[in-house]
Design goal:
5-stranded parallel sheet; alpha/beta; 11 strands; 35% helix; disordered C terminus
């Protein structure tokens, strides 16, 4: 079994270097050593330390960001890109053994999403609440807050996260909380083609009708008969009360018609052309293609002349960034005392 030395940098959430969706695949094919002097680095957006590693770099993002292929050799992301063997689209809802928040379980949510239509009759009897909204981050597109406010004028929307919480505090178990709700607001923090996170499967998992916004091409992955696709009305990141009101009217129509609601619960969640198992197999093949090559042949980025100059500029920028960050606490203290005066 081939031995490989890997390391992780800048990963977010509850990422565990010893147990995650990347290393657990690699352990099936290779003898994996976690080393701070790696031959292969997996890195993400929460650190610029990746520039310190002059090895094969593999970029991963759970955010709406496009890879910089001048810096990385390979990338795993959301966008619909085609770049030879250097890129694969692997949306967050397909990820096992890793979640952004501790009370999430993507693997379980995906399994429940695949089978949610089988539970439709039972789910109808368990729905005692109107709509749920579970978010921690206020820094997102304004349409997320606007849909919450406008739906709340119709019926109470229960906010179980830190953001706009109207309960006694954040809920401990998001799935259990959402199971009693007919609808779930499943809005991404931004919108871009391909940017699909765990939001929609979290709603499907709770046997609810997702009110979804984020990936305008979401119908490639999930069946529009099973959810409310806000992109059908042209909703963008800039709040538009007229469009929001049309979406609210659609929710009201479904809420007051048990037949319509049941039909959505009993519809398959996954789009017919979205083969989950095939996507996961492609991801495994993408990874093994990198590591099956001889080390020197696995590099893809330009490491010479213009590539070298480009990277040198990035490193200079990183030094200035780190230097300036040293003064942020001082600046914050100055603002604090100034506000007190």
């Amino acid at each position: 079994m081939k031995k490989i030395k890997i390391w992780f940098s800048g990963m977010s959430g509850n990422f565990n270097p010893d147990n995650n969706f990347i290393i657990n695949i690699l352990k099936k094919y290779y003898e994996v050593e976690l080393s701070e002097k790696p031959d292969y680095l997996f890195y993400s957006v929460n650190s610029m330390d990746y520039l310190k590693y002059n090895c094969i770099r593999i970029f991963y993002t759970a955010e709406n960001l496009t890879p910089d292929f001048n810096i990385c050799d390979y990338a795993i992301g959301f966008h619909y890109l085609d770049f030879d063997d250097r890129y694969i689209r692997f949306p967050l809802y397909l990820v096992d053994d890793f979640t952004v928040y501790s009370n999430d379980n993507y693997a379980n949510d995906l399994f429940r999403t695949v089978h949610k239509h089988e539970r439709a009759a039972r789910a109808m009897k368990e729905k005692t609440d109107f709509c749920s909204f579970v978010y921690s981050n206020a820094k997102a597109a304004g349409c997320r807050q606007l849909i919450f406010e406008e739906l709340s004028k119709y019926k109470p929307v229960h906010s179980g996260g830190k953001y706009l919480n109207n309960l006694s505090g954040p809920v401990d178990n998001k799935l259990e909380f959402q199971l009693t709700h007919k609808f779930v607001i499943a809005f991404e923090n931004t919108s871009a083609p391909g940017y699909t996170t765990e939001k929609i499967i979290g709603a499907f998992s709770a046997d609810a009708v997702p009110i979804y916004w984020g990936n305008p091409w979401i119908d490639r992955e999930f069946n529009e008969a099973a959810f409310i696709n806000c992109h059908k009305w042209g909703l963008t990141e800039d709040p538009n009360i007229k469009i929001i009101q049309k979406i609210v009217d659609e929710v009201k129509k479904i809420d007051t018609d048990d037949t319509l609601f049941y039909n959505m619960l009993s519809a398959n969640a996954i789009a017919q052309e979205n083969n989950i198992d095939r996507q996961k197999l492609r991801f495994e093949n993408f990874l093994t293609n990198i590591f099956d090559q001889d080390l020197n042949k696995a590099y893809r980025r330009n490491r010479f002349y213009w590539g070298e100059r480009y990277e040198r500029k990035q490193k200079i920028g990183m030094k200035y960034y780190c230097f300036l960050r040293r003064f942020i606490p001082i600046r914050d203290r100055i603002k604090h005392f100034a506000n007190k005066r």
